[in-house]
Design a protein that fits this description.
Largest sheet: 2 strands, antiparallel
Helix content: over 70%
Number of helices: 3
Distance between the termini: 47 Å
Strand content: 5-15%
Shape: rod-shaped
Order of helices and strands: HEEHH
Number of strands: 2
């Protein structure tokens, strides 16, 4: 289950990042800009009508799917946090047990003062 959950979280994380990057790229398309990879900056660009139309279609589709993807990403991130917290809580006593001497634990349990009622 943990592997399955990790796989889902990784997929939704990558999908969410891909979607946000595509939306930012399409937003630059509307403004007449594009990312210049060689100079690592945004330069001006001229697009024709077909490119703008396709960019509009993709932008609207991705924009309307963004809340769904973000919600799935948030849910799987919370599930991952809950699973990791439970694993930490469960394994912590197992990691501390060898460091405690059985004698010390036994003395602590036996010599506990009686509580008055």
């Amino acid at each position: 289950m943990l592997l399955n959950q990790l796989l889902h979280q990784t997929c939704y994380c990558r999908l969410y990042n891909l979607q946000v990057n595509a939306l930012s790229s399409l937003w630059r398309l509307f403004r007449g800009k594009r990312w210049n990879v060689l100079r690592k900056r945004v330069d001006s660009a001229v697009y024709n009508v077909d490119q703008l139309f396709l960019g509009t279609l993709l932008f609207t589709i991705l924009l309307f799917l963004l809340p769904t993807t973000a919600l799935f990403y948030a849910v799987f991130a919370m599930v991952s946090f809950a699973v990791n917290t439970q694993c930490f809580i469960i394994t912590r006593p197992l990691l501390l047990a060898p460091s405690l001497s059985q004698y010390v634990v036994h003395i602590h349990i036996i010599s506990r003062p009686e509580q008055e009622m």
